[in-house]
Design brief:
- The complex is a heterotrimer of chains A (198), B (556) and C (337).
- Chain A is 73% helix and 0% strand.
- With 198 residues, chain A is an all-alpha fold.
- Chain A is elongated and about 70 Å long.
- Chain B has 556 residues and is mostly helical.
- Chain B has a single domain, classed as Cytochrome c oxidase-like, subunit I domain (Cytochrome C Oxidase, Chain A).
- Chain B contains 17 helices and no strands.
- The relative contact order of chain B is 0.09.
- Helix content of chain C is 37%, strand content 17%.
- Chain C has helices at 3-8, 11-20, 31-64, 85-114, 228-239, 249-256, 260-263, 297-305, 323-335, and strands at residues 123-130, 133-138, 143-146, 148-152, 162-168, 173-175, 184-186, 192-196, 202-207, 220-226, 287-288, 293-294.
- A 5-stranded mixed beta sheet of chain C has the order 3-2-1-5-8. A 3-stranded mixed beta sheet of chain C has the order 4-10-9.
- In chain C, a hairpin with a 4-residue loop joins strand 11 and strand 12 (293-294).
- Chain C is elongated and about 95 Å long.
- Chain C starts with a helix and ends with a helix.
- The chains are: A mainly alpha (198), B mainly alpha (556), C alpha+beta (337).
- Chains in contact: A-B, B-C.
- At the B-C interface, helix 3, helix 7, helix 8, helix 9 and helix 10 of B face helix 3, helix 4 and strand 9 of C.
Chain lengths: 198, 556, 337
């Protein structure tokens, strides 16, 4: 056979496939979800099994402010995407900055909580099973927040530099999917660690 | 290339550097695929050598060919290498090469991620083997890891594995996992977002379907291993207690996490073998695959069910009667879609005109051997039977029957089938037949008879055994087969190299096949297709060759 | 019970098979092993039948439909058949039925093995796995021993099974004596239980079946199924404190002034270590080093001098005794009958 590809005379009218950015991000989210689920399973499995040391009830307080900030940042990033879609660059920058600010407040809240736990309550990753599973789960989430904030800050810089246009909406949307995922994980962590687990 | 002076093949240094630079910086899926394949062949030889050493040690009882410490490192490295640095890379290599070509795309969805995934996996392999040199820790306690490829806790705790050997294991696999997830992401995105016009999901070649399912399984399966390894590192270096039984931690938890990865992992390894069978058996039977929709459904079924059977590796751990019963049931059920596949291949052969090329010979051996492997798997799924056979040489025989008898045989078939496309040359059929028969004899000598010591009570991972157990004769036979396999493998490598220079020119479509990769030149140009094809059916080239009787009239 | 298992129950045959293959899973001697054996025969039967049918069909197809240049025109393709829903259904339904039968048979054996009622006269033994030896404690009899497990023979008329309660002091291990029962793991921080009831007196062999470290291969098992009289005698003997042989007094002094006492126990003396095997009646055992070496004075001496000579990687360090002290300690250990 000659090296001839198949070419139809009449091209197919509609051939719409999902965007590869969104598919790729969905795959990444699936993989990351699986990692988080394992850490959550470990957390739940070890509830009540610590041999000594502080328990969740002793030392954990509901992180209301941090949670509200983080969850609101999902809304702000959504507005940022929407603004970019309409070509409103400065509005996009504004919403991106709000997102980064709210995410940073969340991180600061986590840092403060951990300072309290380590230096005042004597709970470290080595203390007991609760310490081990708490710091690893919340820490893993916080790492993902840090990565997300780095990426968002980068995009904010691009946006402030006037380099972003409506044609980049798709990419910003993919990033926002990541950010929504990070927030969704926080909802699970919040419920498991601070509500059901205490 | 003209050969005016045969003795003076001078390649200017700059040309060599350019060539290396081209390959090191490439983002072309075909080159990356070939690098994966070449890389895994190197590790196949190394891990095969490790197996040879073990078989020499075990040929007679009380042998002192290697020390216990060395033997324990050998089986750990052999298993770890074969799964992570031979199995995964070679299968992703073929996937990388074939998927875009088969769907009429020009490259993968994320070419740079593709390159990154390869290089990080490659680095992982190098890191694992660096442990032979650099693994001596504070107590000089280890070089290469010696905790078994599944590294059960608490053997991996600092108390029982001082030094850094376990950490090399952990880090190498973490990196390999990142690479696997990256490649899987690429395959899913490519398959969903870059099919050529007309190629609806139910018109994709079955190979593409299987790789899609494999990739989705990677997301769900490799991540638990990643999570467990992070926990292990936290235990070993930050004083965490995930698997620290002294602090109330659970050794069984590691087993659960590992096998939630480990079981789907073996399906991740075997599904590509099915994918190759789905392409090769029809072509050499001269018939379309029987029951395409059933094959897709069975694949998805296997994918899902494989996520629920993991604790059949833990029947002796004390899960309780209900736990053992559930996992027995789930494991037995998975035999149904797997059986459906075998029957569909049988039905494809039925009524065909079977050509026994070397590729087909390997595929036929695969069919028999996979059948047997599946049946010994059913035996092991019966929990009480597993209470005897588990952790014995019967299990080792079973999984090698799958890994070598099914997967490696289909990989050989895939080589003979697609090598012409990748290089433009045919592999020597004569050498191929020698390769086949020698390997077949060696395989059966080793792995058929290996079931017997298991039945006679020989556990696995022992560096020697007592002479009064009656195991010696069987171990000798098993070890003898290794020599045949080694020779056959070397013949194969020779064939690969020799045919590259001296093989018959292949042309675009030496097998008279029907999927899109056979419509390009051999090897394909870097851009794959000058014009993106449009397809009407599952076998676009069949339609071209048989315009009076196209597939689209009949497809279910 | 199937024909096969009846046949294999022939005592002479079992003897013949067992003498060459003392750990053959198809030569059961106790109820758990018998239960498994019966089920395994059913499984083997089903699996063999499937193999014969499918492999037979494969062979037929490969011969019947091979390309023959004399009979076929190479350019003509055979009739293309794309599928058949009925056929797919049939070879889905039939395997499902086979699975259901197999599953139900299996579930029955799982439950009867794991959820039986414990008879009142069962013997309790606690098994603790160590790197690389077995600790046995008989709580109701106040006996502590190592590596050689003595249990009473269990006659059908007078069931006296032995209940093993198992855990580990360090890494994972697994207790596997194939002729008596399937294996069960010993896991730190977890308690597992199993039972055995050897039906004929004798010595049953096995070994650790979960990789536990360097000397996993030599963590051997020896289960002595004693007649009631022999068992009673053994119990009575083991409950005695250590023999005080005046001829071994010097050796005892060496033993008690070295690090031996920090790892080993000899009841009635200052040696109360728990890290290594209990040595109170070590000379009454057939083997040392967890079944891997015959218990002779020469071997004891060599082992104490340098355990790595026999078991490289064993956790007992070389004691670096001079020859004189070594001889004395050997005499002492050999006196601990």
């Amino acid at each position: 056979m000659s090296g001839v590809a198949v070419i139809r005379d009449v091209p197919i009218k509609e051939w719409n496939l999902p965007s590869r950015g969104k598919v790729g991000m969905a795959c990444l989210i699936a993989a990351e979800s699986a990692i988080f689920i394992i850490f959550v399973v470990a957390y739940v499995f070890y509830l009540g099994k610590s041999l000594n040391g502080p328990t969740p009830r002793d030392v954990l307080e509901l992180p209301i402010v941090s949670t509200v900030c983080l969850l609101s940042s999902s809304i702000t990033v959504h507005f940022a995407v929407s603004a970019l879609n309409h070509g409103k660059r400065s509005l996009c920058s504004l919403w991106l900055a709000a997102t980064v600010l709210l995410g940073s407040i969340f991180l600061a809240g986590t840092a403060r909580e951990w300072y309290q736990l380590i230096y005042h309550d004597g709970l470290t990753i080595q203390t007991n099973l609760f310490g081990t599973t708490f710091y690893s789960l919340v820490g893993l989430h916080a790492t993902h927040v840090v990565v997300g904030l780095l990426l968002l800050s980068l995009v904010l810089i691009f946006s402030l530099g006037g380099q972003m246009g409506a044609k980049h909406t798709e990419r910003l949307e993919v990033l926002s999917l990541y950010w929504h995922f990070v927030d969704a994980v926080w909802v699970v962590v919040f419920l498991v660690v601070y509500v059901f687990g205490r | 290339m003209t050969a005016t002076n045969p003795t003076a093949v001078q390649v200017p240094p700059r040309r060599v550097l350019e060539l290396i630079h081209d390959w090191v910086t490439t983002v072309d899926h075909k080159k990356i695929g070939l690098m994966y394949i070449g890389y895994s062949l190197v590790f196949l030889v190394i891990a095969g050598f490790e197996a040879l050493l073990m078989r020499v040690q075990l040929a007679i009882p009380g042998n002192t060919f290697v020390s216990p410490q060395v033997f324990n490192r050998l089986f750990t490295m052999h298993g770890t290498t074969m799964v992570f640095f031979v199995g995964m890379p070679i299968l992703f290599g073929f996937g990388n090469y074939l998927v875009p070509l088969m769907i009429g795309a020009r490259d993968m969805a994320f070419p740079r991620l593709n390159a990154f995934s390869f290089w990080i996996s490659a680095f992982g392999g190098v890191l694992l083997y660096f442990s032979y040199l650099g693994g001596d820790g504070l107590y000089g306690a280890g070089s290469a890891p010696d905790v078994g490829w599944f590294a059960y806790a608490p053997l991996t705790a600092h108390a029982f594995s001082p030094g850094h050997s376990t950490d090399y294991w952990t880090l190498a696999l973490l990196l390999s996992g990142v690479g696997s997830i990256g490649t899987a992401l690429n395959i899913v995105a490519t398959t969903l977002s870059m099919r050529c016009p007309g190629m609806k999901l139910n018109r994709m070649p079955l190979l593409v379907w299987l790789y899609l399912v494999v990739s989705m399984m990677v997301f769900i399966a490799v991540s638990p291993l990643t999570a467990a390894q992070i926990m292990l590192v936290l235990d070993r270096y930050l004083g965490a207690h995930f698997f620290d039984t002294q602090a109330g931690g659970s050794a069984v938890l590691w087993m659960h996490f590992f096998w939630i990865f480990g079981h789907p992992e073996v399906y991740i390894l075997v599904l590509p073998a099915f994918a190759f069978a789905n392409e090769i058996i029809p072509v050499f039977s001269r018939k379309a695959i029987f029951g395409y929709p059933a094959m897709v459904a069975a694949t998805i079924g296997i994918g899902f069910i494989s996520l629920s059977v993991w604790a059949h590796h833990m029947f002796t751990v004390g899960l309780g009667a209900w736990g053992n019963t559930f996992f027995t049931f789930a494991t037995m059920i998975i035999s149904v879609p797997t059986g459906i596949k075998i029957f569909n291949w049988l039905a494809t052969l039925w009524g065909g005109r079977i050509h026994f090329t070397v590729a087909m010979m390997f595929a036929v051996a695969f069919l028999f051997q996979f059948l047997i492997a599946g049946l010994t798997g059913i035996m092991l799924s019966v929990a009480p039977f597993d209470w005897q056979l588990g952790n014995s040489y019967f299990v080792v025989a079973h999984f090698h029957y799958v890994l070598v008898g099914a997967i490696l045989f289909m990989i050989f078939a895939a080589f003979y089938y697609w090598y012409p496309k990748m290089t433009g040359r045919m592999l020597s059929e004569k050498l191929g037949k020698w390769h086949f028969w020698l390997f077949l004899i060696g395989f059966h000598l080793t792995f058929d008879f290996m079931h017997v010591p298991g039945i006679l009570g020989m556990p696995r991972r022992i560096y020697t055994y007592e002479s009064d157990r009656g195991w010696m004769i069987w171990n000798m036979i098993v070890s003898s087969g290794a020599a045949f396999q080694a020779v056959a493998s070397l013949l194969f490598v020779f064939n690969l190299v020799w045919s590259f220079f001296k093989g018959a020119v292949a042309g675009p479509d030496p097998w008279d096949a029907w999927t899109l990769e056979w419509s390009t030149t051999s090897p394909p140009p870097p851009y794959n297709f000058a014009v993106t094809p449009t397809v009407d059916s599952r076998r676009p080239l069949w339609d071209l060759k048989h315009p009076e009787d196209p597939d689209s009239s009949y497809e279910m | 019970m199937s024909v096969c298992s009846v046949w294999l129950n022939e005592p002479d045959l079992i003897q013949a098979v067992a003498s060459g293959n003392p750990t053959n899973i198809f030569a059961p001697v106790g109820t758990p092993a018998h239960l498994i054996h019966g089920l395994s025969m059913l499984v083997l039967g089903i699996v063999s039948a499937i193999f014969l049918v499918v492999a037979g069909l494969l062979v037929f197809v490969l011969l019947r439909y091979r390309f023959r240049p004399s009979a076929h025109d190479a350019t003509e393709e055979p009739v293309q058949i794309y599928g058949s829903t009925q056929i797919e259904l049939s070879w889905t339904v039939i395997p499902v039925l086979i699975v259901v039968i197999l599953f139900l048979a299996t579930a029955r054996v799982i439950f009867s093995s794991e959820q039986g009622q414990k008879p009142g006269n069962a013997l309790d033994v606690n098994v603790i796995g160590h790197q690389f030896w077995w600790e046995y404690r008989y709580p109701k009899l106040s006996i502590v021993t190592a590596n050689e497990l003595h249990v009473p023979v269990s006659n059908p008329a007078q069931l006296t099974p032995t209940y093993l309660t198992m855990t580990s002091a360090d890494t994972d291990h697994s207790f596997w004596v194939p002729r008596l029962a399937g294996k069960m793991d010993l896991i730190p921080n977890k308690i597992n239980t199993m039972w055995i009831d050897p039906r004929s007196a004798g010595l049953y062999l096995g070994q650790c079946a979960q990789y536990c470290g360097t000397q996993h291969a030599k963590m051997l098992l020896r289960v002595y199924a004693d007649t009631p009289a022999a068992f009673a005698a053994w119990v009575a003997h083991q409950r005695q404190p250590a023999v005080e042989d005046p001829q071994a007094a010097e050796g005892r002094a060496v033993f008690e002034h070295n690090a031996c006492i920090s790892c080993h126990t000899v009841t009635g003396t200052v040696a109360t270590g728990r890290f290594g095997p209990d040595l109170t009646h070590v000379a009454s055992r057939d083997t040392i080093a967890s079944g891997s070496i015959l218990n002779t004075p020469a071997n004891i001496r060599a082992f104490v001098d340098n355990p790595a000579h026999f078991k490289p990687g064993a956790l007992m360090p070389p004691m670096h005794l001079n020859d004189h002290d070594l001889d004395l300690v050997t005499t002492y250990l050999d006196s601990l009958k």
